[in-house]
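Ligand-bound model needed. flavin mononucleotide.
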Amino acid sequence: MEHPPKIYLAPFQGITGATYRVVYARHFEGVDKLFTPFFTGIHKDSKLPARKQAELGNTFENGVEVIPQILSKDADEIILFSRFCEKLGFKEINWNLGCPYPQVANKKRGSGMLPFPEIVDEILNKVMAETAIRFTVKCRLGYFSPLEIFSLIPIFNRHKIDELTIHARIGKQLYSGEPDQKNFQNAISQLTVPVVYNGDIFSLSDYNRLRNQYPAINAWMIGRGILADPFLPAIIKCTHIGSDNQAHIRRFIDDLYFAYRKHTNDKLSSLGILKEYWHYLAESFNDPHQVFKKVKKVSRFEEYEDAVSFVFREFEWVGSGIKQNSSDG
Ligand SMILES: Cc1cc2nc3c(=O)[nH]c(=O)nc-3n(C[C@H](O)[C@H](O)[C@H](O)COP(=O)(O)O)c2cc1C
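Prediction:
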């Protein structure tokens, strides 16, 4: 019998922080792992600062495992982070080899390390010997070229990392263009560690197409698709039975609003976080442009509350269904 797929919520700097994870997991089902945005600046000889520890949040969120992520090119820093996480009860950490932004990549961090397999090897040599909890990696196919991964595959295989998530783009691309299915396919045929697919799953039909293309893959990391339609994991697992999705989303977004206000001690910066999230969520309404325009211009709490009421009164939640129908044919 086919195993049910595993669905992971991708890490998003600025969005999938502790507050979002608590509220998301309270309202939606179907996700098997929740990834934190990447952590940096873990210093020797110090305890994990209270703010960082608070951002790590709970080890499980409503029964869903939380996976802390680190962005670093320093083996000792990664080992220190894994020890902090282990002490807090986490069972896995994830190493970010995917961040594409030039200010990160130019310093050989994130996807900027992918052209340097010898550095990756050296770091894994130290880290794999010293880390007691599961160690997984998230990467792209390369930074300059999608062929860079082929020099890394023997290294990942040899070190037996616990899982490799591949976002099937290169760093230089940022988020443009399409995921490169040909090189992803070639890569998985050479990998002996468990692989997770990541990139551009926005609907059930996207998922079905990729699942047919990669029958050997059973774990899927989804970012923007879940931010836009939080029901997507349950839709994929055929466990979504909600009757009034619009009312459900309203309860979720209100809960998120109050959680961010509490988290920021009622600072207006909570509106900035919410607007960033609405950039994705608006995609699941019948007029994404108008919905986002309405929320984007608010600068006070009352304005935000009015804008959200207006959106739920005047627009319709369509979820990922429209894209699903249009490409199902
Ligand atoms: C604003 C933003 C922030 C992100 N932050 C992170 C991060 O902290 N760590 C990480 O590994 N990937 C990060 N990503 C990449 C996503 O996790 C994911 O790999 C990417 O969006 C592709 O998946 P998707 O097509 O399902 O969205 C970020 C992407 C965006 C757009």
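The domain at 6-236 is CATH 3.20.20.70 (TIM Barrel).
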